[in-house]
């Protein structure tokens, strides 16, 4: 239904479903999927949970900020040319506090973060 609404809103929209045109590209996609699957599995084991969606953000962040041997750079830096602008400690505090929306940030959040 969502895609149909998009199609009605943007009449020039073209939705293409398919595979990569080159087998080599498909192999890279499969390797990336496998990396994500293994890392997410380890996260789920470590956190004793089967709710994989809760681990998706920290796992993808970890993958994107790990230095690759081939390039000696992180995937994030290869794509964007800079390191990510987020701070792991800040996200850790937010996660441990159970904050799920910026509206729920305490007024003294910056003071808490600076402690």
From TrEMBL:
Positions of the Integrase catalytic domain: 1-83
GO MF term list: nucleic acid binding
Example GO biological process: DNA integration
InterPro entries: Integrase_cat-core (IPR001584), RNaseH-like_sf (IPR012337), RNaseH_sf (IPR036397)
Superkingdom, natural source: Eukaryota
Protein name stated in the entry: Integrase catalytic domain-containing protein
Taxonomic lineage from the root: Eukaryota, Metazoa, Spiralia, Gnathifera, Rotifera
């Amino acid at each position: 239904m969502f895609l149909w609404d998009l199609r009605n809103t943007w009449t020039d929209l073209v939705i293409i479903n398919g595979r990569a045109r080159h087998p080599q590209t498909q192999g890279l996609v499969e390797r990336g999927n496998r990396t994500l699957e293994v890392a997410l599995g380890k996260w789920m084991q470590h956190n004793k949970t089967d709710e994989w969606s809760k681990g998706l953000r920290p796992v993808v962040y970890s993958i994107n900020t790990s230095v690759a041997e081939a390039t000696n750079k992180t995937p994030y830096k290869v794509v964007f040319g800079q390191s990510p602008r987020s701070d792991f400690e800040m996200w850790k505090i937010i996660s441990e506090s159970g904050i799920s929306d910026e509206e729920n940030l305490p007024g003294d959040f910056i003071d808490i973060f600076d402690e």
